[in-house]
Amino acid sequence: MNVVEVSAGKKIGYSVYKNKITFEDEVTLNCEKREQDFDVCIDICVDRDGMLTLGTLGESYAAQVEIPARQYVEREVPNPEYNPDDETSQEKVMEKIPAAFSMANVTLKLYAVE
How far apart are the first and last CA of the chain? Predict the structure, then answer.
């Protein structure tokens, strides 16, 4: 995981275990489950009571998790609709398979909380 300190000052506490990031033992994100076919950005904010919130409902930013779009690997497989009598029909087609999720591609941006 890439960690970027966006501003100077005290940062929110966090821990990483497998594909999960836990902030202050309060909020846990399973990054693999949040992965989509497009980039995903998750905001972690602090509300006026000092509690963590997902999204921008808080008073100030604490962190931002950036999960890049899902990657795919292509492989050639037999075409289940192959018709040898049709000149345009292909024996093989390309199949897209999701690549394994990797926390190495996730970026955690940390903001000063005080």
Answer: 24
